Amino acid sequence: MTSPRERILASIRDGLLRAHLPADADGPPRHAAGESAAPTVADMPDQFSAALTALSGHVHRASGAAGVADVIAGIARAHQAASCISWDDEHLGCAGLLGVLSSRGLARVTYDVSGEPGQRAVDVDALAGVGLGLTGAHAALAETGGLVLVSGPGRGRLASLLPPVHVAVVAERRLRPSLSALLREEPDLLDAGSNVVIVAGPSRTADIEMTLTHGVHGPKHLHVILTA
Amino acid sequence: MTDAALAFHRRIDTALADAGLRRALTLTTGRLASGRTGAFGGLADAEACRQEARLARASAVARLDSYLDRFASAAAARGSTVHWAETAADARRIITGIANDRGIRLAVKSKSMATEEVELNEALEHAGVRVVETDLGEFVVQLGGDRPSHIITPIIHLTRQDVAALFREKLGAAPEEVADIPAMTALARRVLRAEFLRAGMGISGVNLAVAETGSICVVTNEGNGRLTTTLPRVHVALLGLERIVPTAADLASVLTVLARSATGQASSVYTNVITGPRRRGGGRGGPEAGDPDGPEELHIVILDNGRSRLLGTPLSEILYCVRCGACLNVCPVYRLIGGHAYGGVYPGPVGSVVMPGLHGVEGWSELAHASSLCGACRDACPVKIDLPHLLLAVRREAAARQLAPLWIRAAMPVYAAVVTRPWLYRWVGRAAARLARVVQHEGWIRRLPGPLGAWTASRDFPIPAARSFVEEHQARKAAAR
Question: Which residues pair with B461 in a beta bridge?
């Protein structure tokens, strides 16, 4: 008695013997096509800002924990957010930021979602009303305005997903031309966490009459604070 | 005509008679197609990007047994549970089993064509699991007991007024909650967020799977794909077995063309790569060393359902497809009749190959005839699938199985005998032209007698010119001398 795995793989091998696959596609993959469009290092902050702004994201520039906290406090005020869920300080790329924010009245709600079904519902319910999510980023992509977020300890997925406002603090040195360039530099990146997500702009839909609308499931507002 | 052909023609008549649908199709497909052109315009060498994406898919399909095996081992090594479903029924049994074993009563779903293909929702509901579609378009489809009409934008056949009426009837929405599209979107967010927070299972499809790391990639613009794969305790992903790329670099190659082709975006809003379930800290000491969120279990169900058999047919190139929908938007037939008329889960040029490919030409070969073989689909395809060639292969297969009506099978050898003999061709042409002028009505031939009536049922001919091309050519040559 063979397993379904063995039967399916055998059926594929059998199919491949008779497959009509075009000869032009029978070569090793190359990964260089997007390259000539790659920006120079000096252009990347501007290109990133232009790409993200075109997607209805907002780009700020600030330096130091106090400067970054000013920007975040302003965003929180504008959206009447009293609390935030956040990555740990060490992953925000801005030493002491959470302390400064707390002293300005933006409380951090910490969490560790339970694996037990009943408790899990209680845990996520407690996060449902939080007004702002705060993250750093592993990298930012100049070509598309995308933020590369890698999950892990102190770097939860929900901070960039659940609240209506997502603020990311990103150092300029984390900018890369494109996803292809980033993966060339770090070929094992996909394995770095259980979740690697590239966020390019606020949540959007055009399902009804092709009319662009933001904030259908993910955050309606995305702010990126670029630090030197 | 066969029953399937008659039913297809009836669906086409229904679609063509729907003026609202025609307007919506023109608007949507036009915008998507021009968005695609614009997005590719932003690439320095769009053609090289398409070829690179094609190679990424082709290299995986050419050694699919080894890459799929490697994917399954890599996924299992990172804590995913891998299941193998030979048929749609297997997939339904596996997934309902996962739900029932854990006492799960509510599942949220992010948009997935594969789950529609195996009719998963009906099976789960039957097993006592409520299923909520969370893509805005699919949510509307589900509320209305409707079917999606486009792979990417499921409700192009509905107006905002249709959606408002549905929300008022099914959700009890107040007038101000359906006043405009942003209000309706906000209402859907509220209703669906409550479901996300309660659901015990999240079900997604897979856009692409990476063999080397056992990762699955799910792209969405709304963010429902992320919520589906993050909040519920159990995540189940249904993966069509051909959707593999060898490496992360190959994934990037395909992503470069995928969103551009689907919606005209350089990148989807959320490109979500998942490698195993939530990672727990190493020691038993505490949660601080592990992921604070994410699903406890990740089940990847690898679906065959006719794909491995398709691989051994002349249609095998269709397995490169990444389901972007670009071929729908440029197809002159799809743009007139829309997705419902095709009758299957996958419409348009891709559906006209995939449906007979997965389910056999009997009952589905008619779709391949609803094409002028103009080649627009091939030019739009991000992985350069030669769709006209595959549509002809479906027709050839149908002919070989004698699925065409008897009179066509009888007429074709006669036609071949005529057109390969110039003297006979000229003689028959003159006779036919004379006959045409007898049966014409106001300059058009709208109905021919006998079996030829099947030809004119969907075509009007202008009457032939007084002189044939050859006669005209010879006359001009003579005059010039």
Answer: B445
